[in-house]
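Quick one: structure tokens for this chain, please?
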Amino acid sequence: MKDYHLYNKNGLAFYVFRKSQGVWELSFGELADDIKEACIDALILRFDTDVPELFYHHGVRQVVEVRAKKYSLWHIYLNNAYVGSIQHDKYTKNFNYHIEDNSLLTDDQVQKYIGMIQHGELKWRKDDNR
């Protein structure tokens, strides 16, 4: 569990956001729902390093997480549910991917994640010796 404090310009904490077991919440203070959700979105994008993007589908936040595994493999999760994988072939230097049929993710989104991996914006496992 980790707390994040939102301060005013005088240095006094008004709001405390908490991440506990992967779930963000406003744990202290009162905010309008849209402002609270915007703050949580910003915290996710800033502090969850494996999250390349989030989007809303039918009013529900969809958090995409790309987690590095061993042997140049990444698993893709949408709201903590497995939806696909990306693999890098060290001999051909090509990336291949698979997305589950029922996933909200598109091919263009996965191509964007591959580009982020190639540019070092999403991490590789240290034991891969890329």
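Strands lie at 2-7, 13-20, 23-28, 53-57, 60-69, 73-78, 81-88, 95-99.
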